[in-house]
Write a structure and sequence with these properties.
The chain has 282 residues and is of the alpha/beta class. It is built from 13 helices and 10 strands.
Length: 282
């Protein structure tokens, strides 16, 4: 289970050395927007130090690489450093994923193939997102809200971002991969109650987790995207009741005044599976 992903600038040792202790399921070492051009090469070279050090705390490490001229060198460096996945910005078509996968094969003789998380950040990518979600090595799909709004000539308000973010989310779910995000921008982290409401809403829509840029948001994401004890207890009750009712030849039944049929049973089982998977990774 991946509920929280914390961005950390790849050129900030004082943040990187604490990143693995912030409680996030994933630390994203950022080589892109958070790092000025003059520091990008050094940040890439230092992945060999920071990726293993952060992973020793038990979480996963993704690396947000640069698109353009730095794409392949960044990807190779992250792969050799042992990163679990690449956050790939500005993906506008599946070809970039195919080319990157082919290029990395020769560097993966001693490790499993690194996974991809494409970021949809422009309108071309938005309309190609279904193909992108079905691309090679895709673990999850997410969006870049600020970039999407800029591409539309719009402001990154929740109303503006809601529909494109849902398009990306639906494509991820159709492809059977994870979906990260909230139906608003993640840049404004000061209003914790608004963030909590947005994370809870995202989980109701079926998002699996979300990114953040400040460690104070990590506990909120972990709480909102996790199943509550009441939800787990109800799901267990549904599964137990379904087994009993099925043995008597009934596929639909009432439980505590609520109608239960196959989709509700499946949803309960999915919740328990997600809970068990998350507990197994602790």
């Amino acid at each position: 289970m991946i509920a929280s992903l914390l961005y950390v600038p790849g050129n900030a040792p004082r943040f990187l050395e604490k990143a693995g202790h912030r409680g996030a399921d994933v630390v994203i070492v950022d080589l892109e927007d958070a790092v000025p051009e003059t520091a990008k090469t050094e940040a890439r070279d230092n992945l060999t130090k920071w990726v293993p050090e952060i992973k020793r705390t038990g979480g996963q490490v993704f690396v947000r690489i640069n698109n353009g001229d730095r794409l392949f060198d960044d990807a190779v460096a992250a792969t050799l450093a042992g990163a679990d996945a690449l956050y790939i910005p500005k993906v506008s078509g599946v070809d970039i994923l195919t080319g990157l996968a082919d290029h990395l094969e020769r560097h993966e003789t001693e490790r499993a193939p690194i996974k991809f998380v494409p970021l949809i950040e422009d309108l071309k990518g938005l309309f190609e997102v279904r193909a992108i979600a079905h691309g090679p090595r895709v673990l999850a799909v997410t969006s870049g809200g600020e970039d999407l709004a800029t591409a539309m000539g719009a402001q990154p308000t929740p109303d503006v971002l809601r529909y494109p973010k849902l398009m990306i989310h639906y494509a991820a779910k159709e492809a059977g991969v994870l979906s990260f995000g909230m139906l608003r921008t993640t840049v404004d982290f000061a209003d914790k109650e608004a963030l909590r409401a947005a994370a809870s809403e995202a989980r109701q829509f079926g998002f699996d987790g979300a990114t953040c840029i400040h460690p104070s948001v990590v506990p909120i994401l972990n709480e909102c995207f996790a199943a509550s004890p009441d939800e787990i207890a109800w799901a267990q009750k549904v599964i137990a009741a379904n087994e009993k009712e099925a043995a008597m030849g009934r596929g639909a039944f009432m439980l505590d005044g609520r109608f239960i049929d196959a989709p509700i049973v499946t949803r309960a089982q999915n919740l328990l599976d997600r809970f068990e998977k998350g507990r197994a990774t602790l």
